[in-house]
Sequence to fold (201 residues):
Amino acid sequence: MSRPKKYHDEEILKAAADVFLEQGAAAGTAAIARRAGVSEGVLFKRFKTKEALFRAALMAETESDQWRQILLESVGKGTPHGNLQKAIVALFDKLRKFIPKLMILEGQGHLRPFPAGAKAPPLEDAKAIAAYLKKEIKLGRLKLDRPDLHAHEIVGAVVHGTMLELRHQMEICTPGRWADHLAETHLAESHRVQPVAKKRS
Fold:
């Protein structure tokens, strides 16, 4: 006798989020169930109403902030320019996935709650970049007077670029070129310290 299939809420929520993003808040639960590969009965067993499913799918903490940890773990490795560039591209990717959800939520009158003690995501993003810059300064690999301001300017530029793309269908350039430009601008040659090459034994 075969075991009954296990349904994971994460899979259902991802399917629901995808359908809501494609069809809007009016998307039917039948379409969501088909996408998730479950019956509508399973949906309503997990989430009592469509409204509950809607809120759970779009308010779920699915945006990836792993890039913050990766950036902090790169301190002292590679080059600050390369490390920051990768982080900026990852931030673009996160916002491209998250902002459409936020737009649908706000369009339905929902406010996205933050976890207890957490700040708004752009502030947390700037905090992570500032922490990275400060650690590199401490190691002598960078010379920047106001790392906090640099961090906020970088995040602001990424949000601006993402909003132009999503709301106005205007792409100034690719995320990779944005990232290279922002890293180059904020870690200008006069402030950048090249890593010391290791001597061969």
About this structure: Residues 1-5 have pLDDT under 50 and may be disordered.
